[in-house]
Design a protein that fits this description.
about 550 residues, about 0% strand, disordered C terminus, Serine Threonine Protein Phosphatase 5, Tetratricopeptide repeat, disordered N terminus, mainly alpha, about 60% helix, 27 helices
Amino acid sequence: MRNAIVALILAAAAVTPALAQDTRKTASPDPTAALEFLGSYSAPSAVLATETSHTSAHPPSPSADRRLRELSTAGALLPPWPADLVWSVQAIEEACGHAALPRSGARPSRPPSDPSRAKEASAQPSPSKATWTQLVLGAHRDLEDGHYAEAARDYDRLLVKRPACSPLVWNRVLARVYARHSRALTDLLAALPGAPSAELGRLLVGLELVANGNFSQAREYLDPLANSHRASNAEPRKRDLRWARAAWLRSTGDPRQARQTLAGLADLEPATAAVWFALASAALDEARVDSRRLTQIAPDSSWNRQLEAEALSARYPNLAHTLWPGAVANRSPEEEDVHPAAESSESPEQLYRAAHSALQTAVKAYAAAAVSPQFSAEVHGLRALAAEQQDDEAAAFREYRAGLAEDPSSAILHAGLGHLYRERSQFDAAKHELTEARGLDPSDPVVTFELGDVCLRLGDATRALDLLNRAVDLDPTLLVARWSRGKAYVALGDDRRALDDLAAAAPVDSTGELQWQLARVYRKLGRTGLAQAAEQRSEEQRRVRGNPQKAEDPKP
């Protein structure tokens, strides 16, 4: 039962024939059928299943739940309309002059980033003949097209000739923020006086603070925007304000209000895939909250069984039928009742209906988002993660490789593939993929931890320690990184620091492995009583798990 439910935890996310073709020749389910059980990971039993970690690798990887959230919240903080937030070409011309740049200051040519831009590029004047306006337009176009790193470089080149042009400085900083530069917040605060408006600057700083987890300070920047009624072309548009509100609500744990805000935004911006993707993720979060609460108050109720069965019905109709005979009936979202009743009601029926309605919203929202190739990497990543939860590693490998064939520069796909290799103890391959992922996104603490742990297993404790220190700096709550760092300290002979890390990481392990390692360090430090206590805890944990064998003997 558990495996069948876990098999559906992630498999439904944003699948369409255009984005997720199965490379196997054998018959397989219609990929669009995944939309029928989209969000099934929020079925009550699956909620708990995804919050556990694999234990085949020690230290284990973070839970599937964390990996799922990282995939489903891709790009969910910054508004998907960066052109709303920059100085216009006209404003830059007025502030910085119209003079044509000399040949030495012209933007160098580069091949178009995709075939659709080849014709456009051929129609543009050569860089040596480009006017100031054309160069600024090129930077603006890169920003609008999502080529943020290129846009930042464009503005850098323009600033060589106009270093005092504050609108150019702001636009360059904004491009760096969207490119997720490591100094984004620092640069943004420094450039704040040059923002097109005080309101717009507050919005960007507030969202960057949310991204960094600084909610109290973020509120100071975002709250005034809710009461701003001044009319100005330089102020954030209604869509940017709604996006910021939804990002704040999701980050602070109110998925229902976030879903409602994003639903209104989707009506305003039906062609923006990022809005639909964020709406789907918020709806899934909401369903998860309701289904968890349903399990808490009525685990044996018919409403709980029905919700689980509906999550299973598209892929496993026979199993679903045993749980709830009516679940196999394939009802479309349009036939469902609208989300009813007061939000404060917590009867089993109300919680079931709330979760069910949120899942139906997610079905439609992911279907709309999946039309765009913008989220192709996330689609492949979610399908691969689903296959991992089904213990179908071959399918997971196919998804990661298919995704990387489409987008070789996807950090999330390299990270997922590296994670899978690490789980299989194929450490050389894991190191290669995780190194690629970290090069593309050095701010990811999980990738940095997994790469450090792999280096440790390959015998490079010094390199491992550097990476694990960085992982802990990036996320001090990532206790598995402290477990691995403790092992690195043991390998390097620093038992006292090893003791601190292993003791701090003890809550993440119930296999007996960590306690056994802790006991060995206590003995080396001459703390016999504490060593015996740790050994006893290790034996008790292994007995509870039904594993009488001795835990892995850590190598010094």
